[in-house]
Amino acid sequence: MSSKSESKPVGQYFDAAIGLLQRVRDEESGNVTEAGTLLADAVASGGRLFAFGAGHSSLAAQDVVYRAGGLALMNLLAVPGVVGVDVMPATLGSALERVDGLAGAVLDSSPARSGDALVIISLSGRNSLPVEMAMNARALGLKVIGVTSVAYATETKSRHVSGTFLMDHCDVVIDSKIAVGDAELTLDGVDAPFGPASSVVTNALMQAMVAAAIEELASRGIQPPLLRSGNVDGGHDWNGRVFQEYGDRIFYRH
Length: 254
Known about the structure:
Blueprint: H1 3-6, H2 9-44, E1 49-53, H3 57-62, E2 74-76, H4 91-96, H5 102-108, E3 117-121, H6 128-139, E4 143-148, H7 151-155, E5 172-175, H8 198-219, H9 235-246
Parallel strand pairs: 1-2, 1-3, 3-4, 4-5
Helix pairs in contact: 2-8, 5-6
């Protein structure tokens, strides 16, 4: 890439994203491996796996559910109104993240139980919903993995009555290294920063975590319950056998 192209936002964005990916690889691999071990522990002991995120953080949660090459036991823990921007108006999702008590109601009506593992993705980790989701999940006996930006805990104030953040209620915390505001670029004449990179980094962290879980299961002599692509020959038959064997731990087909 020429120096001219590197000075433009396109090259700058790719450089920023690559830099963040390299940083989490170098600084968070141990935590990612530890999180993968927690997932493997749950799978090996008959538990189930769940992922939760609100707003754009939900994208990374959805990316590991019913995914070719992924663990079949990963389920989306959905909170109505906050899963994506399809809710109207889209701003309602942001408002619901600040509602006290919503997480407890969702968990109480979900299939999650003691011995399961829950990954909670929240960039800021400061709103009531992810904080209470982690608190309530641990009280129920779930292992909780938090994927968040630790910078928010030092540079912003919690919106939960306890004054705590998601990272304060997790068994393992993975720091996405995203700066407060989630905007990597600036440009003369443009009044606000732009170029969010949290989705790129968080999706990579989630896939690395699943890869770590798969490696850990294999090291214990356990065949990981993986899904194949339905667009390759034999994929549907393979997945059908996985669904049949693990159907009581897969909730996105009910």
